[in-house]
Structure of VOC family protein:
Amino acid sequence: MIDHVGFTVSDFERSKAFYGAVLGALGIEPMMQYDVGGVRHMGFGRGKPDFWISSGQPMRGRLHVAFLARSRAEVHAFHTVALGLGAIDNGAPGIRPHYHPNYYGAFVLDPDGHNVEAVCHGKE
C-alpha cells in the first residue's frame, strides 16, 4: 500500500523536535537525516523511515496523518507529550465507535496546524 509519506514544514528544527518527542511516545524513532540542495529531510520510523518532514516552502491546507499505536497507553502518552510541547488538542484519547468498536485515538494539531493522530485498534 503506502511505503512512506512526507511533507514540508515551516520550521524544520521545531517540527523535528516535535515529531521526535511525540513519535517517540509511540516507539517511532528518528532514523535518517540528510540535506540535498539546501533542503533538509528527516525520516522517522520503526525499522525503516516511513514518515518524513522536509524544510522548504510549507504546504497549504491541513494534512491529516495517523500513527499506529501499539496500545491505548501509547495513545495517551502521545497526547500528553504533544500537549506538553504546545500542540493544540483536537480530540482527547478515547473510543471512536463511528470508525469501529475498538478504534481508540487521540488528535492534536502540530506546529503547522496539521491534524496528527495516534490510534490503537486493539482492546487494550
Notes: The two ends are 26 Å apart (CA to CA). The chain has a mean pLDDT of 96.
